[in-house]
Amino acid sequence: MAKFNLNINGKSKEVEVDAATPLLWVLRDHLNLTGTKYGCGIAACGACTVHLDGVAVRSCQMPVSNIENQKITTIEGLSENGDHPVQKAWLEHDVPQCGYCQSGQIMTAVAFLKENPNPSDPEIENAMNGNICRCGTYLRIKAAVKTAANS
Amino acid sequence: MLPKLPFFKTKEPKNQSKVFIPSRREFLKISSLVTGGFVMGINFQCAGPKGEVITFAPNVYINISSDNVITLIAHRSEMGTGIRTTLPMIVADEMGAEWSKVKIAQAEGDEEKYGDQNTDGSYSIRMFYEPMRLAGGTARQMLQAAAAAKWGVDVSECSTENSQVLHSSGKKIKFGDLVADMGKMEIPKPESITLKEFSSYKLIGKDVMIYDAKDMSTGKAIYGADVDLPNMQIAVIRRSPVVGAKVISFNDEKAMAIPGVNRVVKIEGAGNPPGLDKPLEGVAVIADNTWAAMKGRDALEIEWDLGENQTYSSSKQLEEMLKSTTGDGKLRRERGDFKAAQRNAGKRIERTYLAPFYAHATIEPPAAIAHYQGDGICEIWAPTQHPQWARQAVADALNIDLYNVTVNVTLLGGGFGRKSKPDFVVEAALLSKAAKSPVRVQWTREDDLHHDFLHAQSAQRIKATLDKNGNLSGWNHHTVFPAIGATASATELHPSDGELGLGCIDFPFDVPNIRIESHESKAHTRIGWLRSVSNIHHSFATNCMLDELAEAKGEDPVDFLSGLLGEDKNLNFEGEIKGQFGNYGESIEKFPLNTGRLKRVIEIVAKEANWKNAVAEGKAMGFAAHKSFLTYVACIVRVEKGADGKLLIPEVFYAVDCGIGVNTDRIRSQFEGGAQFATSLAMTSAITLENGKVQQNNFDGYEIIRMPQSPKKIHVHIVESMEKPTGVGEPPVPPYIAALCNAMYKLTGERIYQLPFKA
């Protein structure tokens, strides 16, 4: 067990965990930030996506000891009132079905749009390739990403 | 005993003499039961400690408080269909509640109180559209009566809107201000309720956004594993690698040495057959946190007696199954004389179709939380499609009273039939009792794929005959796949009547000689039901064969199918089906198979897709139509080769007749998602077993389509209809797979006889 100081959603949090613990489980089990989801544990589905200094990473494959001073942003910290342009676009298109993968989809989309504010369809598809939606909301995700890009 | 499966649903009234004395709910009075499992007439009032807020509930689905908060109860599980929104929306529309301010609360599992809660078989809307309107209408009628009495006016001059009763003079009163008066009123009888005219609905028949959309977009929505209880421990289980395997011995020394690991507990499985509601044999590691439990589980050393399934190979079984279809099988439907048709045939065509085992792979792997509180009381939080079955299974496993088990239903991160089965809930209950604390059982993705209740692999052989004029004169369909029932009973060697009623014996075409046969196969793994169940493989074989027969006849497939449906009529298969025709639990009189409705969706989809127009070189279209779960669907898929040589699916067209379209946006979303789901089944996903073990471990081995491979546009035409509404969760899947395969043939010149196909 070791102590780690993490900057999460603008707040400093201390946790005492096994150094190999993936950030995903630190968030979920130790900090009660359950908006970040477990889907596969091998970085193959994207449900656990969070931002490290604004870059989308799969938290299930990120040992907590690898994080230094980077700022961690989870879905809970994306906006104060759920009104980030991407979240607003999500509501406009009524994207979710079961909703479970949507935190990860939104976190991937937000990081992507920061890098590429005016993406083409194939660029969106490639950017979202790492996020599985088993319900198949892909078309509405794509539409919402475009709406957010235009806003 | 087999549980009631969705398509075996019986509708006889429940035993009304059953004593219901739940100590926690003695304020409830059950006065009547309506067939269909809907409880009406429950009347309760709760005053706050000093009478601040009084609530009035004219029935179990509606709660009005004196501060005008309307809370509607969702009693079906939300797994992505939008049902948690759509059923309360019906109530709200009928009663005149202000939808944007309505709150929705999720019901716990309680059959006496809520009626059927088994969210499966695409029947929530079909079963509850009328009862929900009746519930809303009862409340509205009472509110209007209470206001009329208060104002001293005739009730016919009163209406409701925005959670207020309005009088024709312009007077208004909030629902909440009538609560105290309503508590003194008699609940009107269902037959005295006048429902609104359809044209006056403001929500029903429209696009309504799901209630949980904002929570789902902000990380606030609560799924199974998100529930946190004080002193909760986490369990991860090593389950029998081969179904039926038993633990001979285990060494937990290394597991217990991992910091955070507190306890190792053996779970006894049912052996063979494994059962539909029992846990698999296993050893659980219980720890302070998920990571420690996972590491502890990996450190377990277990010696297994792998049992009778350890030599099982799914590929070998599939070969044997296919071979078995060459002989005569068990006769399941007969019309005319197929063998005579064969003798007199101008042309005979025989084809075989193979489909693999599929896993559900819900994006949320199973997880459940149990708190065994001692004294035979247990509370559960779980993403379950069937809270009542979970409740019963937990009561049985712990040998405690059903009424002392509370099952709280969280949101489900996908269900598709997997989360009907309560095995994972029972695990949590057993482990909470052993650990003397609340326990969350967390399945990993590997656990989910290794230990699913799989959609059965299948082999089919269809022999068809064309007469001297080229008309289809004979249809002989052989089908073989391990039955769902075999998971609970080893003597089940043939698919049940229910499973064959899903796209096989309900073959709706005017062919004079029909012979449908099933063959024996054993289950060597757990078999369950997956979104549209055996319609998946039956529609694949039937619709691909019909496409080939149209070609043999030299006719357009759309014209061929429409022609084969003959005159508009209701089919009842009288005297032809050997055994029961399930008709998805509905009587054939109430929900007949109407060939005209199927023809209509075929006609619409062909028009919308410009089917008759020539397509450019390198592009193609395929077509199929299939009725399932009492909903009529036709589908056209367009395909082309992309620049990189990979397959592109630029456009999908659906026409659907599901009767009244209740929440049209959610109908479209089910079809959009259904096409994506079916693309995975057709092209990327398959489970295989060797030495009795599932060979796929995670999403790298069991692939789900991703955005780049997904169909690019999906058009859904909802037929305007005033027929009784039917479900849409499953019906998008069956016709899509065949339409895609038929399109592939047009594109490549090669027919597809085995799923999944690579392109």
TrEMBL record, chain A:
Residues 2-78 form the 2Fe-2S ferredoxin-type domain. It comes from the Bacteria. This is (2Fe-2S)-binding protein. Gene3D superfamilies: 3.10.20.30, [2Fe-2S]-binding domain (1.10.150.120). GO terms for molecular function: 2 iron, 2 sulfur cluster binding; metal ion binding; oxidoreductase activity. Coiled coil: none annotated. SUPFAM superfamilies: 2Fe-2S ferredoxin-like, CO dehydrogenase ISP C-domain like. Keywords: 2Fe-2S, Iron, Iron-sulfur, Metal-binding, Oxidoreductase. It holds the Pfam family Fer2.
TrEMBL record, chain B:
Residues 218-308 form the Aldehyde oxidase/xanthine dehydrogenase a/b hammerhead domain. Transmembrane segments: none annotated. It comes from the Bacteria. InterPro entries: Ald_Oxase/Xan_DH_a/b (IPR000674), AldOxase/xan_DH_MoCoBD1 (IPR008274), AldOxase/xan_DH_MoCoBD2 (IPR046867), AldOxase/xan_DH_Mopterin-bd_sf (IPR037165), N-heterocyclic_Hydroxylase (IPR052516), OxRdtase_Mopterin-bd_su_IorB (IPR012368). One of its GO terms (molecular function) is oxidoreductase activity. This is Isoquinoline 1-oxidoreductase. It comes from Rhodonellum psychrophilum GCM71 = DSM 17998.
